[in-house]
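pls design
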């Protein structure tokens, strides 16, 4: 068994032992807003990949269709977006600006169907960014609230904080 096969199982195991002072917080079920931003990011990314393929292969091909390869990076984050992987939302929100830039350049320099498709690319890319940013903000806010809850529970019971026990 290679180290790559063992990596996922090791990373999913919680850190336990005498050195950890706090127990890992369990992820609660996603809220309706989190599900909504995930679905928006996922389906907008999928739609952008389809638009990129259709644009470069059938609707308004440039050259011999080699620019269709630009759709491949859009397929990579789909599993991570669907599984609520925070790291995926963060890097997609940075990577998507390449597609915004391409859409802006081609939307202002091309004519005909290429120009319309470029503006569709810009709209979908900005939608993906907004959905990823919303997901990240919601998750960080939830983590801050979860971090504050144990301190509130200790104050209500009159017990000293867990670090002092």
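designed seq:
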């Amino acid at each position: 068994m290679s180290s790559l096969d063992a990596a996922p199982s090791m990373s999913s195991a919680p850190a336990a032992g005498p050195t950890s002072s706090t127990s890992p917080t369990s992820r609660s079920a996603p809220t309706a807003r989190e599900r909504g931003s995930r679905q928006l990011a996922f389906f907008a990314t999928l739609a952008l990949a389809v638009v990129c393929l259709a644009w470069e292969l059938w609707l308004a091909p440039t050259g011999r269709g080699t620019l269709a390869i630009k759709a491949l990076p859009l397929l990579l984050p789909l599993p991570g977006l669907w599984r609520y992987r925070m790291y995926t939302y963060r890097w997609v929100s940075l990577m998507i600006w390449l597609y915004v830039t391409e859409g802006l350049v081609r939307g202002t320099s091309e004519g005909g169907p290429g120009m319309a498709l470029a503006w569709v690319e810009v709209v979908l890319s900005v939608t993906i960014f907004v959905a990823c940013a919303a997901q990240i903000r919601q998750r960080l806010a939830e983590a801050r609230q979860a971090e504050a809850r144990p301190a509130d529970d200790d104050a209500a019971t009159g017990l000293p904080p867990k670090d002092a026990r």
